[in-house]
Amino acid sequence: MALDITIAQYDAPEKDLYELGEMPPMGHVPKQMYAWAIRRERHGEPNTAMVEEVVDVPELDSQDVLVLVMAAGVNYNGVWAALGQPISPFDGHRQPYHIAGSDAAGIVWAVGDKVKRWKVGDEVVIHCNQDDGDDEECNGGDPMYSPTQRIWGYETPDGSFSQFTRVQSQQLMPRPKHLTWEEAACYTLTLATAYRMLFGHEPHDLKPGQNVLVWGASGGLGSYAIQLINTAGANAIGVISDESKRDFVMDLGAKGVLNRKDFNCWGQLPKVGSEEYATWFAETRKFGKAIWDITGKGVNVDMVFEHPGESTFPVSTFVVKKGGMVVICAGTTGFNLTFDVRYMWMHQKRLQGSHFAHLKQASAANKLMLERRLDPCMSEVFAWNDLPEAHMKMMRNEHKPGNMAVLVQSPTTGLRTLEDALDARK
After folding, report:
1. 319, 284 Cβ separation under 8 angstroms
2. Which H/E stretch holds residue 133?
3. How far apart are CA 86 and CA 76, in angstroms?
4. C-beta of residue 380 within 8 angstroms of C-beta of residue 400
5. Contact (Cβ atoms closer than 8 angstroms) between residue 252 and residue 405
6. CB 361 within 8 A of CB 235
7. How far apart are CA 249 and CA 306, in angstroms?
8. With the C-alpha atoms ordered 272, 276, 282, 287, is the resulting torsion angle positive or negative?
9. For 103-115, what is the mean pLDDT?
10. What is the pLDDT of residue 144?
11. Neighbour tally for 16: CB within 10 Å
12. How far, in Å, CA of 180 to CA of 282, rounded?
């Protein structure tokens, strides 16, 4: 394949394995690569489950693309893959090892023989939805409802925590050139997830002037939710658990911020009618009143942006307005959700599950980043060797506000081009 004349020219030897940051000749695919691998017998916390190994570079099918990973995003998918929860990734793909990582920025290094939209040398970000593309939902419906839908890096064995990663060509999107490699690597999963949650479930798609309660407002998902809500002309009410994060959330554009530690109504719902329920109910009303102090007396939120799950779901279903929606994409505090169903059926509230996004939604979100309408909220960048510890920080909720990334082939932070990476190695 003829390479684009804008691709950097450089000399490099052809080898079967390259060290981290060492650049192969453009388009040369080595036999092996370094990767952080999980094996079924090592399921547990990330610092023991993830081990650096030398593995084979994956082979491509006709619609596949091989990407040289410059940097990868760190998100909760990696924690779940390490723990084997809520399901073990091995139960899906049944391969001997699993490479986690569902976010990346990099360079197209090889393409299958039917790939038309991308060529070697293209700089890309990767969205994490895969499907087989041949059913009704993939052709006129919603690919997220396809029976073949799967998440790359969690339900596939070949995620981004490796020098090369194999993806479907439809997973690729243009990389924002104004961002560094690590900034470009950290946003796609959380941004596209937040976009579908807010705009993907008609008729409850977000509209100007509406109010949205955002749990975990300083985290990866929350930080994009706040910005998207603001961009849509709606009002975000952020919830934090650490007062030091208030200014960060307000600076993102939130209309107001609540600290959940000021209230005591978290966890599973007490038995309806019990004394414990009465105590919970009073405290939940106090939380609802604090929302009114931001939205106006009697004005409940139109939507609740949920992902903690077990600890917050009973409150979410109570404070959302009549006919409003609680949309949830995860259960980081637990999966056993409880709520008072009387308020759901009598007030005709919608409880909506949401799972990542399809290409059109991911591309719409990415366009906002390309147009510099959003900040990637890069909080912390880790060296390759510190990748397991980055996931430990996330699991312990000790990470800084915003989004984290890890360097892979990019030798240092602050680089924006392949030329920058080549110069940094000299």
Report:
1. yes
2. none
3. 12
4. yes
5. no
6. no
7. 17
8. negative
9. 98
10. 96
11. 9
12. 48
Residues 15, 34 contacting (CB under 8 angstroms): no
Where do the DSSP E strands lie in 21-63? Answer: 32-38, 51-56
Q: What is the mean pLDDT of residues 50-65?
A: 98
Joined together, the tokens standing for residue 423 give: 């110069």
Q: What percent of the chain has pLDDT over 70?
A: 98
CB 166 within 8 A of CB 65: yes
Strands 64-74 and 51-56: unpaired
User: pLDDT band at residue 6, thresholds of 50, 70 and 90?
Assistant: low
Which has the closest alpha carbon to 73: 176, 14, 140, 153? 153
Instruction: Report the distance separating Cα 86 and Cα 57, nearest Å.
Output: 28
And the tokens for 117? 């939209």
Residue range 139-175, pLDDT digits in tens: 999 999 999 999 999 999 999 999 999 999 999 999 9
When the pLDDT of each residue in the chain is averaged and rounded to a whole number, the result is 95
Instruction: Please give the single-letter amino acid code of residue 384.
Output: W
Buried b (16+ CB within 10 A) or exposed e, 189-211: bbbbbbbbbbbbbeebebeeebb
Residue 341 CA to residue 344 CA, distance in Å, equals 5
Torsion sign (Cα): 214, 215, 217, 222: negative
pLDDT at 1: 36
Amino acid at 363: S
CA torsion through residues 208, 211, 214, 218, sign: positive
The 10s digit of each residue's pLDDT in 350-391 is 999 999 999 999 999 999 999 999 999 999 999 999 999 999
What gap in Å lies between CA 332 and CA 93, rounded to an integer?
23
